[in-house]
Structures
1.
Amino acid sequence: MSDDCIFCQIIAGKAQCHPVHETRYTRTFLDAFPSTPGHCLIVTKAHFTDIFDSTPEEIAMVGHVSTLIAHTLREELQCDGVGIYQLNGAAAGQTVFHYHMHVIPRMVGQELHIHSRARGAPAELEAMAARLSKRAYSLRTDD
Ligand code: 5GP
Ligand code: ZN
């Protein structure tokens, strides 16, 4: 736990999020500034700054969950594609320094952005998280 880390605060229940899924090692919640509706972040429960500070085991867990979340997005939102991005270091565009992976629904013809400046509307995030969470827990973890 790093006191000044927003993702640690979310994991500790001290800051709010729109949760989608949880495992022993990970939390998945909606990005507060979604690039597209349904933009998810898979976050390690333990605080690691980035890939260089993490362990292969933790990264493997995030990778494992990414398949479940990709299936969840495609099945629930019928998106044409799913972009998976993981940024390490400010030079790579990382802005929150707690290891995480973006899983972003994509539609044909959309511009490709990882980050958005527009905060998602709370009611829309809440409804989206409820849909995705229900779908994620309905799938097998090896889907
Ligand atoms: P990075 O640039 O580090 O790969 O991505 C960090 C992501 O975290 C960004 O897409 C940003 O929108 C998102 N983010 C920043 N602050 C918060 C927050 O307080 N809650 C949630 N859910 N997402 C956040
Ligand atoms: Zn943290």
Note: The chain has a mean pLDDT of 95.
2.
Amino acid sequence: MYDETIELLIDGVFCQGSDGRSQPLINPASEEVLGQVPYASTADLDRALEASAKGFAVWKAMTTHARSAIMMRAAQLMDDRKETIARILTLENGKPLGEAVIEVAFAAEVTRFYAEEGKRAYGRIIPARTPGVRQMVVKEPVGPVLGFAAWNFPASNIIRKISGALGAGCSIIMKPAEETPGTAVALARCFQEAGLPAGVLAVVFGEAAAISSHLIASPIPKKVTLTGSTAVGKLLQRQAADTLKRCTMELGGHSPVIVHADADLDQAMDTLVAAKFRNAGQVCTSPTRFFIHESRYEAFVEGFVARARTIRLGNGLDPETRMGPMIAKRRLDVMEAMVADALDRGATLSLGGRRAGNRGFFFEPTVLSDMPQDARIMSEEPFGPIAPISSFAAFDEVVERANALPYGLASFVFTRSMTLAAKTEEALNAGLVGVNHTVISTPDTPFGGVNESGYGSESGSEGLEAFLRTKLVSEYGV
Ligand code: NAD
């Protein structure tokens, strides 16, 4: 049923590691144990570090065209195995199988994008002030990379790091989330079978804090890239400071949605219900603070609740399922506490609000209306299937409320007016703005936040740039 053996990948070899400890892998829909996640020992990590230095030298010396060919083959294997990998992903993460299939196809596309983009790591020639001098700006891979990623997109979160690094000519040691290891191993097999040289990619699991502090302390890796919470981002950035590694930080968010008075309400509600409850709300760009113009507020709440009520919860392998479980029991406790706090402060419970069933980590699609601004959920990232809705009267007021948090990842605007759209886009403190839709993540476009949502981009040419360093070569008399 669960068609993957969870292993570490070190120096081109899949293995169980020498630590001896492991942790159970739980299916969040059934609470069944799917397997054991082996821990890497310190000696395993040191082997991975040495191998990544050697792998980097080999990979960097290859032409971008030769690297691209291997990456293209890996992407094809991902496509060929899409159904199998998606099944593994659904079993460990819980999301509906259809979403998992799309995610694995996305991983293949991201790999193809970087396989091509790596060929465009162009430098430039700068005219010199001195006769006989030629000044060249050369782009080089930054070196071995360390990647850490969350479980909510078990394929996308890691592939942006792996394929970005490989496309630029870097090696990478990836520590995926222990909640979703099988997807990472299945994708790593695609790279190895496509002919990736030993050491270029490593996959390790274990006690997150111990692994990250050991790997980051090593002088071998030159870059850290994290997709995770703001708290862990701050911690890893502090650790990276000791060896002055550069970082890319894809961190938490708390996305405002502004629905202006002139919006196409049906289109907004259809789009936002789908976006809110996708992956049970466990999405860094999930709409989380709904600000609806007061003239449309009641109609919006009514229509949103009517749509959300039809969402069918269940096991992601069931084709009827539209929303799966949350990743773990601890998340249900957080949802319950957030709902209780909002109700204590005067919010109205318009839908849901409770754990669903007693097996698996399901939480009902939940709508809280008349949201008081001081409720905990209005400042703390919910990362779950709760939509807190409030109304606004004036443009300046809603912009101030939307920009009130330290976060700055995604934001959304719904309006029929291009002028109002442009004015809102400009005013929002966010790395991503979706106008009249929520599709803000593609292989070709830069993805990333500002302020405490992090910095740096993944995907697009900016995503490649993140794994490159700049060298000036100034020649005289050659
Ligand atoms: P997390 O920060 O706890 O873990 C992320 C990764 O970091 C995991 O692999 C974890 O094992 C690892 N890690 C390394 N050192 C660690 C340490 N000392 N302590 C704990 N973990 C350590 O994140 P999470 O709660 O698993 O994931 C949810 C968060 O990720 C949310 O805040 C969400 O918004 C964010 N996220 C951001 C993006 C983005 O692109 N901006 C995308 C997906 C998720």
Note: The chain has a mean pLDDT of 98.
